[in-house]
Amino acid sequence: MDDQKSNCDESDSEPTRESVRACALCNCVERSLHGQRELRHFGSTSELPTLQPTASQLPQPGNDELSSIGFADTICLSSLFDDSGCWVHHWCAMWSEGVQQKDDDGLENVDKAVISGTQRLCAYCKRLGATIRCHAEGCSTFYHFPCAAASGSFQSMKQLALLCPQHIDKAEELGEESWCAVCDSAGELTDLLFCTGCGLHYHAACLEIGATPIQRAGWQCPECKVCQTCQPGEDSKMLVCDACDKGYHTFCLQPAMDSLPTDPWKCRRCRVCMECGIRGLVLPGSAQWFDNYAVCEACQRQRTTVCGVCGKAAHPSVALQCCTLC
């Protein structure tokens, strides 16, 4: 069984929490994989109320699990604001209810959105920080920006309007904006993927890819897809993860790859051992993976040195019989 060497897009070192800057709405760091664009600093326009402190911690770089978006508990505003304002991703701010764009391309009321988000649960992840409301009249459903896509909601970049899955049928009223860029029809609205780069929609079936929550969040169409490491950078040797559909340059991975692999490839974030449950981000970049990145190095070693019946290690003079399937 051929081994597959782990090639990751990040270094193994993690900075201290003090060096981490995270969005005050989605709680993801700047280099997130969910398409929120850059972190921007917004000033305060109102006096901040005082909330009780919490033990909730900000994420470390690379912590892009959908389950870690937002805040699990009531947050102390002092952890979200500095002396002059707060840091929020561009799209997290633009899509938030009550935020308005000024003539100079600036945004106002972002701080008010952050304050309101501390009291609102996301309909998808059930965590605080949700500020994007469903556009349907009378609907009080709110989402974080990454969770909106993960939930299968329809998003209109032209109108900065969201329709939750329950009201997604209203997207047809937007005409061509709800059409797939491949088949030029609305078709199955629940199958549409929203490109966070250009705002166009594509049926997953038309592209012959999946439409899982991790694929939907931060998805980029073939024309907009950039390397998640150097974004954007040199447009060559792009490797696309078979699980999340995110792109990486072979030379941006650590360790770098000399060429594009012929077999399906998974990025480090999407590798999970089906036997012990360990995730790729926990292991060093040099770790090896087997069975299409489904078995970690330690479990593979266990497979080849320990009897599957008695659970004992084989004597050096005894050859274990290996199953050709598992």
Automatic annotation (TrEMBL):
| InterPro entries with a match to the protein in the record | EPHD, Znf_FYVE_PHD, Znf_PHD, Znf_PHD-finger, Znf_RING/FYVE/PHD
Q: Name one Pfam family in it.
A: zf-HC5HC2H
What are the annotated GO cellular component locations?
Answer: MLL3/4 complex
Bias category Polar residues: which stretches? Answer: 44-60
GO terms (BP aspect): positive regulation of transcription by RNA polymerase II
Domain of life of the organism in this record? Eukaryota
Q: Where is this region: Disordered?
A: 44-63
Q: Where in the cell is it found?
A: Nucleus
**Keyword terms:** Metal-binding, Nucleus, Repeat, Transcription, Transcription regulation, Zinc, Zinc-finger
Q: Does the keyword Repressor apply?
A: no
Question: Which GO MF term does the entry hold, naming one?
Answer: histone H3K4 methyltransferase activity
Q: Which residues form the PHD-type domain?
A: 54-168, 221-273
What residue intervals traverse the membrane? Answer: none
Write down what this protein is called.
PHD-type domain-containing protein
